[in-house]
Amino acid sequence: MEDGSESDDSAIPAEPRLKYRRLGNDLSQIFQNDSLTSILANERFVVIGTEKGKLIICDHDGNKTKDVCSLKGAISCIRTDERGEIIACSTLDGHVRVISLFEDAELELKMKFKNAVHRISLSDTYLSSGKIIIAGEKITLCERGLLGSKKSTNLAITKEVSQIEWRGDLLTWADANEVKVRTNSFGHNHN
Q1: Which residues pair with 111 in a beta bridge?
Q2: pLDDT tens across 29-73, in order?
Q3: Which of 38, 57, 91, 128 could form a disulfide with 73 if both were Cys (CB 3.0 to 4.6 A apart)?
Q4: Pairing assessment for the beta strands 54-58 and 46-50 based on DSSP bridges
């Protein structure tokens, strides 16, 4: 006879469990002398940014496959294009780099800003347009021009941006106090 003190565990849905594994191999050695400040993963690779300004590509087991670049300041943000052919990063000392994994110099950018760059976002059409949003004390649209020239347009003055996303004509960013959305054709040329 049941007194109601025992419960039927099969009636309680099991909590979802996240399966994971710790990446080791080369990452273990890297983290002995440096610390992680930014990370991005896709189906092909994991990109890590460090306090000492290193941008490194690893496989999904933590084996280093490429030292992408080394900058002076801590990496604050990493982005890739949809195909994983372009990697962009920003640093707290104001550098922004866009690097082609296929070493296509026409797609690459090197920029230096006076203040920290906290976040970046690549245009959906970066391969053809060369456009990137830079978020520091201002939200700035930068685009690659002919022969490596750069054009910049300030879109907003803001506090430190914690997140930014750009999709088509929609730009959304957040700071400590609010979320803002801008919708228009700021990122496209209309002739």
Answers
A1: 96
A2: 999 999 999 999 999 999 999 999 999 999 999 999 999 999 999
A3: 91
A4: antiparallel
What fold does the segment set 21-183 form as a domain?
Methylamine Dehydrogenase; Chain H (2.130.10)
Concatenated DSSP letters for 44-107? S-EEEEETTSEEEEE-TTS-EEEEEEE-SSPEEEEEE-TTS-EEEEEETTSEEEEEETT--GGG
Longest dimension (CA), the chain: 86
Give the residue among 49, 116, 44, 40 at the shortest CA–CA distance from 80.
40
Q: Is the pTM of this model over 0.90?
A: no
- Hunting for tokens 């052919």 — which residue is that? 85
The kind and range of the H/E element at 43 are: none
How far apart, in whole angstroms, are the C-alpha atoms of residue 24 and residue 40? 16
The C-alpha torsion from 77 through 127 and 186 to 75, rounded to 10°, is 10
Distance CA 75, CA 95 (A): 9
Q: Return the structure tokens found at 47.
A: 């990109």
For residue 21, count other CB atoms closer than 10 A to its CB. 8
